[in-house]
Amino acid sequence: xxxxxxxxxxxxxxxxxxxxxxxxxxxxxxGPYGIEVLSAGELHLPEPEETGDSFVANALIKARxxxxxxxxxxxxxxxxxxxxxxxxxxxxxxxxxxxxxxDFAPAMARIETExxxxxxxxxxxxxxxxxxxxxxxxxxxxxxxxxxxxxxxFPPRGTAGFGYDPIFIPDGHAxxxxxxxxxxxxxxxxxxxxxxxxxxxxxxxxxxxxx
Length: 211
Prior knowledge:
CATH topology: Maf protein
Distance between the termini: 6 Å
CATH architecture: Alpha-Beta Complex
Radius of gyration: 17 Å
Shape: globular
Oligomer: single chain
Helix content: 25-40%
Number of strands: 6
Number of domains: 1
Structural class: alpha/beta
Strand content: 15-25%
């Protein structure tokens, strides 16, 4: 049963994304609950302009657009990396730093260049944030957030994952997200303990409330 005050999620939902890596992670997370996932890309839904000033605001924009366009419940993720030494940049602009091509190699190089330009000598701290938004065609919405802290490393290491994963080492680990398997990164511990990735942590909160 869903938690009091929350709406139960089931059946088929739309993942409000055109990003194949993010879609794969969402399918991995909801699959064990018997939920089928279609993507906004597969349904040829347009990508709305992300004009929000926070991860939550942008997730809501995407979820509402997908729910309205598909007439189904929609799940959107807005996530990014926040570098402490860059005052939280790129933050909500994480995807935009990769440009329309979606190539994150120049974006990761930009982070390194800008940190070095500031003469940072200490460990380069950063954190990933994920905001998940659920929207129904009738206008009902719910949001959940997750965060994981760690350090940056250069050059990038690993080819698993996507985005900025190859430069991020989560606290308590020696490998980057880019060097971890999907199950290591966003698997949900059977004992109910906190998951590793920001998206999995946000999803744990969603699952407790709506699944």
